[in-house]
Amino acid sequence: MTSRLFAICFNATRPSDLARFWSGVLGWESADGPDGDVAILSAGAAGFRIRFLPSQEPKIGRNRAHFDLTSASPEEQQRTVARALELGGRHIDVGQRPEDGHVVLADPDGNEFCVIEAGNTFLAGTGVIGALACDGSQEVGYFWSEALRWPLVWDQDRETAIQSPDGGTKITWGGPPVAPKKGTNRLYLELALPAGADREAEVDRLVSLGATRTGTGGDSGNGALLLDPDGNEFSVRGPR
């Protein structure tokens, strides 16, 4: 049985504060994490939660992944930006051009995210988190398509994107050049297996697709920690 995307995890210096920020920005509700940690969950059917895990590792450079938040209108984009700033976010410059319609911000822990302008057809119908936008190769896009069994919804000019067959948030990779990885990623994917599944068999499947074992453990002792073909950490929890 294939594991599913259970959570997008943030390594955070102040997990509770960061959870409050993202709960306020997204309108998501607090939820009990699987290990007593801080988590938020969509009131609808987003299909995954966001977990905030304690970490004191300093941020080194830009994250390899960030959220692209959607807007139904220019007014909604302005409201989202204003709400984020009110909750402790800030404007940052990552080289965006004055004519670009999206707004680039950082959350209180320095994690970058974008508030996309209205009318973006690629993100239409995805929900408030339109995409988890990643710095990554075409190969890693193919890996995650097979790992999650999510179809490719974009594969052009070495850029890739996948989306669950049920819709919702897309995961995208921008293609080369891919910046060298520096330290442990602050954002990473956590997979979970359905009841009755064999975790070791699933880990073997992921390794056959191009993942690398790093040992067992991770944040809770209940997960196998692996690296995808671009060296990004991800974990596989036991059946849930």
UniProtKB/TrEMBL annotation:
Keyword ATP-binding among UniProt keywords: no
Alphabetical UniProt keywords: Dioxygenase, Oxidoreductase
Stored InterPro entries: Glyas_Bleomycin-R_OHBP_Dase, Glyoxalase_6, VOC_core
Recorded GO MF terms: dioxygenase activity
Domain VOC: 4-118, 125-239
Top-level taxonomic group: Bacteria
PANTHER family listed in its UniProt record: CONSERVED PROTEIN, HYPOTHETICAL FUSION PROTEIN
Protein name from the UniProt record: Glyoxalase/Bleomycin resistance protein/Dioxygenase superfamily protein
Taxonomic source organism: Actinacidiphila yanglinensis
Record lineage: Bacteria, Bacillati, Actinomycetota, Actinomycetes, Kitasatosporales
